[in-house]
Structure formats: C-alpha cells, structure tokens
From TrEMBL:
Protein name according to UniProt: Histidine phosphatase family protein
CDD domains, per database record: HP
Source lineage: Archaea, Methanobacteriati, Methanobacteriota, Stenosarchaea group, Methanomicrobia
UniProt xrefs under InterPro entries: His_Pase_superF_clade-1, His_PPase_superfam
Length: 395
C-alpha cells in the first residue's frame, strides 16, 4: 500500500483507501500517513499518532503532533514545550524547546530560550556547533540563519556560504538570544592554580553529528574539532604532558591533536577504562544494544539518580573505577589528559560533586580537572574546586 493511496476523508476525521475507510474509528482531525506508516490525529484525549488500523502508536498524549519525516516527528507537550519522538513514541533526546519544525533534508530547526536557534539531526544532535538568533529549514543544501550582522546562508556543516537579505516567508517567532561559547577555561585553570599533579578528564572534540539509524562508532572529528583540540593543547602550561583516550577514533584523534598543539612528540595511549566499554560498563555487549534504543542523555541522568542500568556497574562502583584510573595517571609536576565521552563524565562529576546535569550537558572539549595537592584530591568543575571525600567510593 502506497502512502499516497491513503486519502484523508472530506471531513478530516479518518482515512480512506479506494474510497472506503481503512478503520472504523473517527477522530476530531487527522493528518496524512507518513513513513514509517503513522499519522497524526487528535481526539478528546489529545494529540498522538496512529497506525493503519487506527490504533495509537504509543500511550502518551500531547497538545499537538506533527507529521513524521525521516522516522522522527515534532510534538508539543501540554506545557507548550516542543520535543521530538521516534516511531515508538520515545523522545530522541532529553531537551525540549520553545519551538521546533519538522525535519527537512536531514535536520530540523529548534529554538531554545537561552541558547538561540540552530539545526539538529534525527538523533537529537546539533548538526553543527553554532547557535544563531534565528534559523530556517534547509532547502537545496543551504539554510538561512541570522547572526549579529544579519542574515546569511550556511551549509549543513555550518560553513558560511554568503550574506543575504531577510527571508520573505513568515515564521512563527523572532529570536532574541544567541549563545557563543566562551574560551575553554581548563588551560587557564591549570596555569593559575597551584597543584602537585593534574589530570583532565574531558569529552572529545567536535565530531561528525549522529544520525538516526547510523552507527556512532565511526564518527571522526570535524575540521573545526581538530583545530580546537590543537588549540587546547597549545594553551596548556608548558610542562610534561601525556594523553590517554577511549579507543574510539574521535577520542584518539583528540588526544593526538592536543599533543601536536602542545608540541609534544608521542602518541595517545588507548584505554578501555575511558570507553569501549569504560570503567562504568560491566558487559559491553549488553550496553551497546541498550544505547541503540535508549537516548544517552536520558539514561545517564537516570543512572546518576541511582537506577540500575543493564550491563552497567552500580554508579558508585563505576565512579570508583574511573577515579582509580584517572588518579593513576597523575605524576608529579605533569599533566595527563584523559579523553572520554559525555556519558562517563556525567556520572563521574555528579557522584563526586553532586552536580545536576539536567540543564547543563558537557560540550565538546568540556571536562573536569583532578588535582592532587598536599596529599589531598580536588575536582575542578564549572569554575568551582571541590575537596573530595573518597570514603563513599570505598564502602
């Protein structure tokens, strides 16, 4: 059955095939069927999606539901916030937005109240690393965005194509904020803080964006990710430097670029404690399958809240294992950089400091610093230094 053969009835309450209803139920209104075979509907319970039998595709009800495109649909919850769901009704990420469009050419426009406007992928990832005052959907491989100087066209990798005039088509809102990331503070902290030994546990540099249904293990650093990693290395204090990394290519690339920027010869040492699987993972096969169908950010927040996740060590035990690894890289008068993934930075920092990551997720090259000073351990994170009490990790 072709989707084009399924027609919305004249009163928009059901769907027809060859002039006959395909199910008995009637709704207040219905939208077209879209891949993967779901249609947006509304009735007295709210808005949701149905299958060809007229059955709900999931249990949740929303204030509004958009059409599916590329296996993802925008919806608006009853609080007025926008998010995206997959065909099973699961959110593709934990973020919600002031406004969101449907997907076009592999991306959707989203507006955030404190960050601005940008494009995201079908996996809920930023398509590129920038935010703007305004953005419009991609068409023909380019999209309108607005910065401090006015409107311009960008390509899907975020490159500026040309300056242009304001788009003629009306849009529901006009942005008033734009987030510009500050300079990475870690090198300055290491230069300006007293320490006997220091280790940085950080997320890798900017990588290619995740796309729904594509493996994430093959993603490599973008050109900007390489430049920023090299610049990070160049800004570090001129002391002996070693790098360790998850065996994922993007992490090893980050470590190597940091060494190159610092002018240090040598190679990044790979460690399974930092990823694939990591200090937090007891069964890598189970965890790989688990994260194929469960968003990392949502699961990480549940993990630090104490939930037992399949294939994971208890979060406190995993944090002890990660601490033992990172502290084991410390050497007097030296800096070690341990490149890992956001999923493992979150429990490490959260368990050691109590930090709440609900509205603040680690970005690329974002990280914490483990400092050893006078026989005590301190963890620097988000501008604060925490004296660590390690006794809970040893219980």
């Amino acid at each position: 059955m072709d989707f084009d053969d399924l027609i919305i009835s004249p009163d928009a309450t059901h769907h027809l095939y060859c002039g006959s209803p395909i199910y008995e139920r009637r709704f207040d209104c219905v939208g077209p069927f879209c891949f993967p075979g779901l249609a947006a509907v509304r009735d007295g319970e709210g808005a949701y999606h149905i299958n060809f039998l007229g059955e709900p595709a999931y249990n949740e009800r929303y204030a509004w539901t958009g059409d599916f495109s590329e296996g993802v649909a925008p919806v608006q919850n009853r609080d007025g916030r926008y998010l995206f769901i997959d065909e099973a009704g699961k959110p593709i990420a934990f973020e919600t937005y002031l406004y969101a469009t449907g997907f076009s050419e592999g991306s959707a426009v989203v507006y955030h109240e404190t960050l601005g406007a940008t494009h995201i992928t079908t996996a809920g990832e930023l398509l590129y690393g920038d935010w703007y005052y305004d953005a419009r959907p991609f068409s023909g491989g380019r999209a309108y965005v607005r910065d401090e100087r006015g409107w311009l066209f960008i390509s899907p990798d975020g490159s500026i194509l040309e300056r242009t005039g304001e788009p003629a088509e009306p849009f529901p809102l006009c942005g008033t904020v734009r987030y510009i990331p500050p300079e990475n503070p870690i090198p300055a902290v290491l230069r300006d803080t007293a320490w006997d030994a220091a280790a940085v546990l950080m997320r890798h540099g900017e990588r290619e964006p995740f796309i729904k249904g594509q493996p994430g293990s093959t993603k490599v650093l973008t050109a900007r990710g390489k430049r920023q990693s090299r610049a990070f290395g160049a800004a570090l204090p001129k002391v002996p430097l070693r790098t360790y990394a998850s065996p994922m290519v993007r992490c090893v690339q980050t470590g190597d670029e940091i060494l190159a920027g610092a002018g240090v010869s040598g190679e990044t040492k790979k460690s399974l404690m930092l990823g694939t699987p990591s200090a937090y993972v007891a069964d890598d096969d189970i965890v790989r399958e688990f994260y194929v169908v469960n968003p990392v950010k949502i699961m990480s927040l549940r993990y630090v809240a104490g939930e037992t996740l399949p294939g994971h060590y208890p979060v406190t035990e995993g944090t002890r294992r990660m601490f033992d690894f990172v502290s084991g890289t410390l050497a007097e008068g030296e800096i070690s950089v341990c490149v890992t993934h956001d999923a493992w930075i979150v429990p490490f920092v959260s368990i050691l400091t109590g930090y709440d990551f609900t509205d603040d997720w680690p970005g690329f090259l974002d990280g914490c610093i483990l400092l050893r000073r006078g026989g005590a351990y301190y963890l620097w994170w988000r501008g604060e230094e925490h004296l660590l009490d390690l006794s809970p990790l040893r219980e």
